[in-house]
Amino acid sequence: MQDYTPAIAFENIEKNFGSLKVLQGITGSINRGEVVAVIGSSGCGKSTLLRCFNRLETINGGRLVVNGMDLSHPKLSQTQLRRLRSQVGMVFQQFNLFPHLSVLENLTLAPRQVLGKSRSESEEQARFYLEKVGLAQKAEVYPEQLSGGQKQRVAIARSLCMNPQIILFDEPTSALDPELVGEVLLVMQQLAQEGMTMVVVTHEMQFARDVAHRVIFMDKGLVAEEGSAREVITEPKSDRLRVFLSRMSATF
């Protein structure tokens, strides 16, 4: 039976850093199999929202349920956190690969330690996903031997090795040289076509318009506008969004 409950549901969630209110009562949901792009100026709360979704940040108010797990409580057990992190992958802006481990070792570490998979099973899966992101020949090299685009594709493959039901992308192309952006976006587009639930914080407006099902525009810790990708990006309703898109227009 198909599960129609949202992959992520959040109601009036708040996040403060001291006296600074970063999220000011945000409500929304992410459906299973949906690709949602979160856009907005730096400092508007996009990345903080994403980090709340896998409990890298704890909310200060409201209700947040991710893949059936209630993350509203201030404390979760290590077992709950491990289960959450195995179901919700995260791809960071700065790759976060272990420099002293080979690509293959980077991909097999978490499946072995968190999921309890054998070395042979983990390596077989890692090679499968390296093939999927076009880096099968890089299994034995170290991160320093890779380009930025290759590192990010390895990071995506590493996330896939945990067999996640949701993947969060925190500005995955912002640290890349422009000529390397396309190779990462292509992998993400393939995942979207395969039905992966994805939340993508991005400044790549063309990707948001062409790949995302919905776009959420954040401003000053609030959801200022949301809707279908083409509607939000090609027919913005608010002056604030029109100004933002005009500044980003060189990217699409």
Explain this structure to me?
By secondary structure, this protein is α/β, with parallel strands linked by helices. The chain is 38% helix and 24% strand. It has nine helices and ten strands. It has helices at residues 46-53, 78-87, 103-113, 119-132, 148-160, 178-193, 205-211, 229-234, 239-248; strands at residues 8-17, 20-30, 35-39, 61-66, 69-70, 88-91, 166-170, 197-201, 214-219, 222-228. The strands form two sheets. A six-stranded mixed beta sheet has the order 6-7-8-3-9-10, sandwiched between helices. The protein has a four-stranded antiparallel beta sheet with strand order 2-1-4-5, with helices on one face. The longest helix has 16 residues, at 178-193. The radius of gyration is 18 Å and the shape is globular. This is Amino acid ABC transporter ATP-binding protein. Belongs to the ABC transporter superfamily.
Descriptors:
252 residues; alpha/beta; 4-stranded antiparallel beta sheet; AAA+_ATPase; ATP-binding; ABC_transporter-like_CS; nucleotide-binding
| Count of helical regions | 9
Instruction: Give the termini separation.
Output: 40 Å
Extended strand count = 10
Q: Proportion of β residues?
A: 15-25%
Write down the overall mean pLDDT: 92
Anisotropy-based shape: globular
Order of helices and strands: EEEHEEHEHHHEHEHEEHH
- Rg calculated over all Cα atoms: 18 Å
Q: Please state the structural category.
A: alpha/beta
Report helical residue fraction: 25-40%
Strand order of the largest sheet: 6-7-8-3-9-10
- Give the low-pLDDT segments: none
How would you sum up the major sheet?
6 strands, mixed
Organism: Aerosakkonema funiforme FACHB-1375
InterPro entries: AAA+_ATPase, ABC_ATPase_HisP-typ, ABC_transporter-like_ATP-bd, ABC_transporter-like_CS, MetN_ABC_transporter-like, P-loop_NTPase
Domain ABC transporter: 8-245
Protein name: Amino acid ABC transporter ATP-binding protein
